[in-house]
Amino acid sequence: MIGVLGSGNVGRALASGLAAVGHRVTMGTREPGRAELVDWTAGATGAGAVALADPITAATGAELVLVATAWEGTGEALAAVAPALDGKVLIDVTNPLRFTTRLELAVGFTDSGGEQVQRWAPGARVVKAFNTVGFELMDHPDLDGGPPTLFIAGDDASAKADVAGLAADLGWAVHDCGDLVAARLTEPLAMLWIEHALRTGSRRHAFRLLADPQ
Question: Which of these, 45, 164, 194, 206, could form a disulfide with 148 (CB 3.0-4.6 Å)?
């Protein structure tokens, strides 16, 4: 079973996409009885079989957990469930964003949000993934030129293999960027995605890595 922490657009996109390809998904939210969410899980947005629960229940019952909260709430969200994450794969979908005079990274470039998530959940096996594209394209991205590339980073090879399998289920080609420290590179890449979205007014774009065969 997969737990998703966060009931916003990103959490919903990943929860519904994973449920649609056969995974059992529970979304952890502070308001599992909220009418909007109940209607959504009933199929109002094509969500399929997504259950609702409080965050600790969702994390405890899951074999793998995604954190898809807004950055400013991520530390609190993980603190509430950290013991339930020990030994589990934790996919960090967040980006450490803040707004001063413009939108910018709140963490970098000698640290990353992914590494901070690992410190907040020290017993988890953190993999950074799904943070370099908008929620609209997280599930089976259909763009001219073929499937885009999902960049992942993490310290645990087995955990990355699990995440790569989920990404393949959702229609992605996967590139392993190496250890979790590589989140220092993929998070600025998310800023490039955001810059293009703001400049063009479109959110239908993604990155693709092209390379000659080895």
Answer: 206
91 close to 127: Cβ distance less than 8 angstroms? yes
Beta strands in 47-108 (DSSP E): 50-53, 64-67, 89-92, 97-99, 103-105
Cite the beta strand spans of 37-144 per DSSP E. 50-53, 64-67, 89-92, 97-99, 103-105, 125-128
For 85, the domain range is 2-200
Question: What is the residue type of 6?
Answer: G
Token pair for 42: 């009933």
> How far apart (Å, rounded) are the C-alpha atoms in residues 127 and 165?
13
* In a domain? residue 172: yes
What pLDDT was estimated at residue 47? 62
The pLDDT of residue 2: 97
Q: Which residues of the chain have pLDDT under 50?
A: none
